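SEQUENCE-TO-STRUCTURE ENTRY
===========================
Question of interest: how does this chain fold, as expressed in C-alpha cells?
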Amino acid sequence: MNGKLQIGILLTFLLMICINFTSLAQEPAKKYKPRQFRKEPIWIEMMNDPNANYYLTIRAFREYWKSRILPEEPFENHELDTFEREVGLEQEEESEEERKREHARKEKKRKRKGKPDETMLYAAQVRAFKGWMKAVKPWVREDGSIVSPEEQQRIIDAQSEERKKIEELNTPQK
C-alpha cells in the first residue's frame, strides 16, 4: 500500500509540473522594461518578437542609440536618408556641421568612459532594424500592435479577390 501511495503522489507531482509548463507556454506577450532601453540593446529582441509594440520598439532603439554613435552605411547620404529623423535621433533642421559635432561629442564621451566601440558590433542589427521598420510600417495598427503574417495574408487574399471581381465587372462582355 505504501508503494502505491508513493506512486500516486509522484504521478500527481508530475501532472502538476506538466500543467505548469503548459501554462508557461501560453504566456502573453513579453513585457519589456523601458529603464533597460538605454543600457541594453533590447530593441534587437523586440524587433524579432512578433508581439512587440512597434512604437515601443522604436523608443527602445532611440533610447539605446541616443548616447551612442549609430553605425553608418557605406555610401550613406545624410541629406537623403531620413532614418535618424524617423526614429528621433536627430532633429529636422539639424545641419551637417551639427551632426558632426554631436558625433565627435559622443565619441569623446565613449573614450572617456573606456567603453568598447559598439558601432560596428551592432551594424548588422541596425541594418536589419531599418529593414524591419520598412517592412512592418504598413502593417502597424494605431495602438502600435503589428498585424500578424496570417492576418496580412488574409487581407492580401481579400484584396486580390475584390480586385478580380472589379476587373470582371469592368471587362466588356462579347
Notes: The CA atoms of residues 84 and 90 lie 6 Å apart. The chain has a mean pLDDT of 77.
